[in-house]
């Protein structure tokens, strides 16, 4: 196969995606502008319905961003200061940040080295009298072991809040039976519509979803200042809304999400095939009971990760390290008493992971250039 010369390779090519959808997006945005309904307008209601249908979930409550989604989800559960929430140290900071902001205690658990998700075998070991909730993060595009987590939650009366910012559209098979959309299995699910996400807006946005009527009512109130009836406030809330222009954009994109995810999977297959004989890198693992929608295509490079990253940059190929330092070693979280060596798999992953360009508009030619450049480095 002819290898292309490098030209403007993007980690996420939002411009190419916009070009494909420009007529639809411009039309829907113009409708919002002409209507003047910029807050909680018809576009928001329509997107909310379409997302609920896509996820096959009873309630979807949009909000301003993915961090707010996590915060509001925990607020809806009425957790008390000092309650413990188990989660992963190998994730974007928002997951632990909202736990700390609410006066709760983050309890970190090490990761599975193959999936980068929570090591389920260690979750039960960390359940104590103050443990109230587990937040699994479906990292890089595939799910945690939700069947095991849900059984554990039932045994110990725990809440499960799914952080699904990176895996919208991925499914998970419970007990080798029915497939469920990730984010709809636990008590509450959350997601982000940050522009680079698989379903991304052109600004910030997020959503919370649940099949529980009581949680849904609480969430709907919390995102609107704790309001019940107009100007009647039943609880302490926040102001967190998805604006109508972003909803209009997302409404166009959600119709294409399944196809976009399939294109990501195709690009991942090209990467897999072309890197299969490179002993120095480990390609992403796929769980049998979870689809993978490849928010990121993340290699493990046990040696010379940083050197390979520099080499790619010299050849105009972007790459990213998600995440260079686990949360338990970050300065902001030192108060919780963790130290180097507490979570060896998370710490090791932080020195080895390298994410390559991944988006629906990657061509086989581009992937070939990237993989050939990697091959050249290790010759």
Main pleated-sheet profile: 7 strands, mixed
The level-1 CATH class of the largest domain: Alpha Beta
Task: Kindly report the average pLDDT value.
Answer: 96
- List the quaternary state of the chains: single chain
CATH topology of the largest domain: Aspartate Aminotransferase, domain 2
Structural class, judged by helices and strands? alpha/beta
Total DSSP E strands: 11
Any low-confidence stretches, pLDDT <50, length ≥5? 1-6
Within CATH, the superfamily of the largest domain carries the name Type I PLP-dependent aspartate aminotransferase-like (Major domain)
CATH architecture classification name of the largest domain: 3-Layer(aba) Sandwich
Shape: globular
Q: Calculate the terminal CA-CA distance, rounded to whole Å.
A: 19 Å
| Percent helix range | 25-40%
- H and E string: HHEHEHEHEHEEEEEHHHEHHEH
Please tell me about this protein's structure.
Helix content is 38%, strand content 12%. With 379 residues, the protein is an alpha/beta fold. It folds into 2 domains: 17-109 and 116-254, Type I PLP-dependent aspartate aminotransferase-like (Major domain) (Aspartate Aminotransferase, domain 2), CATH 3.40.640.10; 257-378, Aspartate Aminotransferase, domain 1. It has a 7-stranded mixed sheet, sandwiched between helices. Strands 6-7 form a two-stranded antiparallel sheet. The chain has a two-stranded antiparallel sheet with strand order 10-11. Helix 6 links the parallel strand 4 and strand 5 (159-163). The relative contact order is 0.17.
């Amino acid at each position: 196969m002819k290898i292309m010369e490098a030209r403007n390779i993007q980690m996420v090519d939002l411009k190419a995606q916009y070009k494909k959808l420009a007529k639809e997006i411009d039309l829907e945005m113009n409708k919002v502008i002409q209507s003047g309904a910029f807050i909680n307008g018809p576009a928001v209601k329509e997107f909310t319905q379409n997302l609920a249908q896509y996820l096959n979930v009873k309630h979807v409550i949009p909000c301003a961003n993915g961090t707010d989604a996590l915060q509001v989800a925990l607020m809806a559960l009425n957790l008390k200061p000092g309650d413990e929430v188990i989660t992963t140290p190998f994730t974007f900071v928002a997951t632990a940040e909202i736990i700390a902001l609410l006066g709760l205690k983050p309890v970190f658990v090490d990761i599975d080295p193959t999936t980068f998700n929570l090591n389920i075998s260690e979750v039960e070991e960390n359940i104590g009298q103050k443990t109230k909730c587990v937040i699994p993060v479906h990292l890089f595009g595939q799910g945690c072991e939700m069947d095991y987590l849900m059984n554990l939650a039932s045994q110990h009366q725990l809440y499960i809040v799914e952080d699904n910012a990176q895996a919208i559209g991925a499914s998970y098979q419970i007990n080798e039976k029915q497939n469920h959309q990730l984010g709809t299995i636990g008590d509450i699910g959350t997601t982000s519509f940050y522009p680079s996400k698989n379903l991304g807006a052109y600004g910030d946005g997020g959503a919370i979803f649940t099949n529980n009527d009581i949680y849904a009512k609480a969430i709907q109130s919390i995102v609107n200042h704790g309001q019940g009836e107009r100007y009647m406030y039943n609880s302490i809330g926040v102001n967190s809304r998805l604006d109508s222009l972003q909803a209009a954009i997302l409404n166009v994109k959600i119709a294409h999400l399944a196809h976009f995810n399939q294109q990501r999977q195709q690009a991942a297959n090209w990467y897999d095939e072309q890197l299969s004989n490179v002993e120095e890198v480990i390609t992403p693992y796929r769980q049998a009971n979870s689809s993978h929608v490849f928010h990121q295509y993340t290699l493990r490079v046990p040696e010379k990760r940083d050197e390979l990253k520099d080499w790619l940059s010299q050849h105009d190929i972007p790459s990213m390290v998600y995440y260079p330092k686990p949360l338990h070693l970050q300065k902001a979280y030192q108060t919780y008493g963790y130290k180097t060596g507490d979570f060896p798999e998370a710490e090791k992953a932080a020195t080895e992971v390298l994410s390559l360009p991944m988006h629906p508009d990657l061509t086989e030619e581009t992937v070939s250039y990237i993989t050939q450049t990697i091959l050249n480095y290790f010759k």
